[in-house]
Amino acid sequence: MKKIVSILLVILMLCSCAAIGGKTEFVEGITSPPAVKIQYSDVSITAGKGTYSWEYVENGKNVWVEADSDHPLFWEDIASFSAGTEKTAKLIFDERMESYELKRWEVEPGYFESEDYSVLDEGERVISEEGIFEVPTDGKMYVYDLYVKYEGGGSCYYGFRINSPDEWGLTLSVSSVTPTGATLIFKQSGGSPTGELMTGSHYRLENENGELPYIVEGDVAWTAEAYGIQKDGEIQMQANWEWLYGTLEPGTYRIYKGVMDWREAGDSNSKEYFAEFTIGEKPVKSMKIMKIVDGSESGNLVLAGENSGDVMTLNAKNVPVFLDGEPSDSSMLMDGMTIHVYHNGEILETYPASFGKVGEIHAFSIGSKNQPGGTYFDLCGLYLKVLDDLWEVDSGLNGGAEYVSIDLSEAPGELSEAEKSAVAWIFGNKYGVQALTFTMEELKNEGYLTVAGGSNDLYQWDNGVYMQIYDNSAVDPIDEESSSEIYFGLPVLKFDAMKWRSPLGAYMFMGCKAVWPEMGTWSDYTIDSQAIS
Question: Which domain, by its residues, includes 414?
């Protein structure tokens, strides 16, 4: 299923109250937003969950969850039903629903494969009162996006699809579902079958991965009877799959049945219908987009997303790896690569955070769509080398340091906030000091610095080292070409680097240059001059 979800959990506070501001409290065990069902005639489907914010109580503590997902337009598998003769459908909400908004997009077959995100601006607002909305009668297919706000501050985006009316006027639904069987219901209304509609005893199941192997051994024999489906009528059939598939685990499934439009011997058409059903709660399957900051050689990865706290670790040595869609292994991973981590949705609250369980890693080589050429590939690796070199030179400046603050706020290359945090953590962990990412001004404001030499204008850091890499590509008023130096057709990254303890305790690398590797990793950098104070 092409659906991207990432989840962040934060424990907020101890809480034992029964209500917040007079609103319904989030109770123990309800760890995600409630389900929303869509009832259409006798067909009921559960809308898929996308992006949401949610709060719940666990062991007396409030836990806040943020989950990110693709828009429903990009879900390959999405809950759906076919339009029939009924003119309206009804949204069935949990009692905590506070408000909602429904939008729709007209789509064609294969729409979910599109990379055109501009279509998100073209949604049409759907008028709905008390959850009832009109089902389209124009014969087209629509994807719906439903935004729901809940009492207490939670919210969730849901998605579902309404398919074009069936040419034979048939719908298949499922009721009385158990782990070992269900009741199947075919209804006929409208449409234009040209003969007699018939179905047999045969059916097949698929899980959400699109497969479900037989559990029993030997050939499977189906009885040969045929069941007629009358015009404007319905038939109910019992399906007991315990003999074939055993007891199904909790999850979402599809059951498929073939139907024939029979006119006479040798003259008929057939096609397959399916209905979705859920046993228990659908398992969470999530994907998180990360960049490898460090650790590819050992397989113990340090990963960074976008926001400052989005730093994670992952042991990739025993995880299935796919490179550009082909089976591979962790030895093919490189620092700087973009990877998609498929996991069970659990994020362990350590720092850096870690995944509960990882199923697969999908990596992308330089030049691919997800890792295009012309990027500052593994810029974090270059800056870690600069910081290592700067730490080693004049090592006496580091004596007694308990902290290090790595300031990359003005470093060239537009690192994400998470990459900056990851570089700081890697460096601090390597040298056994607590890592910060404060600027000099922030260190002063946070009380880390003390006055030096009795002057309120001078400061020193008694138990820490401030390290900074900053852009040095400003145009020289004498030589305007100095900011656009080219080496073998590739631009040159220019920067200075400094470590500082006090006005009389600092060391600088000045006029540093590194060639931008359009389709590879940084080879090294040069230093024009060094200074000490």
Answer: 379-532
Residue 287 and residue 6 in contact, taking contact as beta carbons nearer than 8 Å: yes
Can you give the pTM of this predicted structure?
A: 0.51
Residues in the chain: 533
Give the tens place of pLDDT for each residue, 277-290: 877 654 445 678 89
Q: Which residue has the tokens 């003119």?
A: 87
The residue written with tokens 């709905």 in the block is: 128
Taking Cα atoms as reference points, which of 515, 472, 462 lies closest to residue 492?
515
Query: Which CB contacts under 8 angstroms, 24+ apart, belong to 267-275?
Result: 267/195, 268/195, 269/194, 273/170, 273/171, 273/172, 273/186, 274/172, 275/43, 275/172, 275/173, 275/174, 275/184
**For tokens 């429903």, what's the residue?**
72
Residue 429: helix, strand or coil by DSSP?
A: helix
User: Which amino acid is present at 401?
Assistant: A
Q: From the centroid of its chain, how far is CA 405?
A: 31
Cis peptide before 352 (omega within 30 of 0): yes
Question: How deeply is 332 buried, as exposed, middle or buried, from its count of CB atoms within 10 A (0-12, 13-18, 19+)?
Answer: middle
In a domain, 372, yes or no: no
Q: How far apart are CA 316 and CA 342, in angstroms?
A: 12
522 and 410, same structural domain?
Answer: yes
Residue-wise pLDDT tens digits, 287-320: 788 999 999 999 999 999 878 789 999 999 888 8
Crossing angle of helices 417-431 and 379-392, rounded to 10°: 40
Asked if 357 and 208 sit in the same domain, the reply is: no
383 phi/psi in degrees, rounded to 5: -70, -35
Q: Are 451 and 482 in contact (CB under 8 A)?
A: no
Q: What does residue 489 show for φ and ψ, rounded to 5 degrees?
A: 80, 0
Backbone angles phi, psi at 60, to 5 degrees: 80, 0
What is the C-alpha to C-alpha distance for residues 253 and 420, in angstroms, rounded to an integer?
43
For 234, phi then psi, to 5°, come to: -150, 155
- In the chain, helix, strand, coil percent, each to 5? 10, 45, 40
425 shares its domain with 500: yes
Distance CA 410, CA 213 (A): 56
